[in-house]
Write a structure and sequence with these properties.
By secondary structure, the protein is α+β, with helices and mostly antiparallel strands. It contains 4 helices and 22 strands.
């Protein structure tokens, strides 16, 4: 099921603009793409069922370090991440900008910034929710953050009170930040358009291990890996009934820009029939995997090896050789039991 659509592909949403006024606004998809209008969605009458809605985000992380004696490494670095993919990076060993600091320091300090936006959309492109942010941290603690709904800076620590008052009075700073946040959605759309054709189905693996502290139980795990895009749902079923997971990981990135996820259920040690791993991608059943299938393959492999070994023994027996198999001495014409005690 998809989001309800108004005539002319317009979407009705309750939104708050950057000056903090609540408006009931008709948002056209074309206007959003062209950057004619940017609003921060507070509440929406759009509904996407199941997990058909998708979140898209663009983040930039900046880190600046003081450089005490004996410290090696970059003093400034920046990383751009879109849809959990690193799209840009920068580091600079030089520290010419440090000349403007009021006084030198002998200890290591860190200044961090996270700026970007997150957009949640239905499959038809309608916007459900927009979250824009600009946050600063100092020495591992939150320092100050920008509230895009009120266009005001909020102090996260009493130490940031002076900075908050100064920045809230800087009109140019707010205008620049407003422009950056407005363009953020356009940049996400540009990136999504460039990777829209990329799609890879998950590869599934199922395996079991002995449950800790209970030898009568096993942990049955399903691993899905190598899929893109990130949006996916995975369940383990028994006779078509979805089981409550014992543990489940979040979707995690692989080193080849695909993703992986795993989920586990607790089963009885002797139960091996009827379990199935099912994966939904983009709202449809992408693939499934039977746990019993791996067991049958293992049995078939063992059986094939056993048959091959027997054939080899028969071949040697035909050549007149005696072979010892489980306490039985065999020749081509007869076999006699041996006393192995």
């Amino acid at each position: 099921m998809t989001c309800p659509c108004l005539p002319d592909k317009c979407k009705l949403a309750l939104a708050a603009d950057f000056i903090g006024q609540l408006n009931c606004t008709i948002i056209k998809s074309s206007d959003l793409k062209q950057g004619k209008m940017f609003t921060l969605t507070v509440t929406s009458f759009l509904f996407c069922y199941n997990f058909s809605s998708a979140r898209h985000h663009l983040l930039y992380f900046y880190t600046a370090l003081t450089k005490p004696d004996g410290f090696s490494g970059p003093v400034f670095s920046a990383v751009g991440v879109c849809e959990d993919r690193r799209i840009s990076r920068y580091s600079n060993e030089e520290q010419t900008w440090k000349r403007d600091w009021r006084s030198p320091t002998e200890s290591l300090h860190t200044l961090q910034r996270r700026v970007g936006c997150e957009v949640e959309k239905c499959p038809d492109g309608s916007v459900i929710h927009v979250n824009a942010f600009d946050e600063y941290g100092y020495d591992g603690e939150q320092f100050i953050a920008f509230n895009s709904a009120t266009m005001q800076w909020i102090e996260k620590t009493p130490k940031a009170k002076e900075t908050r008052m100064k920045w809230n009075n800087q009109r140019v700073r707010r205008q620049v930040l407003q422009m950056v946040l407005k363009n953020c959605m356009n940049w996400i759309s540009t990136f999504n358009d460039s990777v829209r054709g990329m799609h890879s189905s998950p590869v599934l693996h199922m395996f079991a291990s002995v449950a800790p502290r209970d030898q009568s139980k096993q942990i049955l795990t399903c691993l899905a890996t190598g899929f893109y895009p990130k949006l996916i749902e995975m369940n383990i079923t028994l006779n078509n009934i979805t089981l409550q997971p014992f543990s489940s990981s979040e979707v995690r990135p692989n080193d080849d820009q695909t993703f992986q996820i795993r989920t586990s259920v607790k089963i009885h040690r002797d139960e091996k029939r009827g379990y199935e791993c099912r994966v939904l991608q983009n709202g449809s059943l992408e693939s499934r995997h039977h746990y019993l299938l791996e067991g049958l393959i293992a049995v078939a492999v063992v059986f094939a090896v056993a048959v091959l070994l027997i054939m080899l023994l028969i071949y040697k027996g035909i050549n007149g050789e005696f072979i010892l198999i489980k306490g039985i001495k065999c020749h081509i014409s007869r076999c006699v039991a041996l006393d192995l005690m």
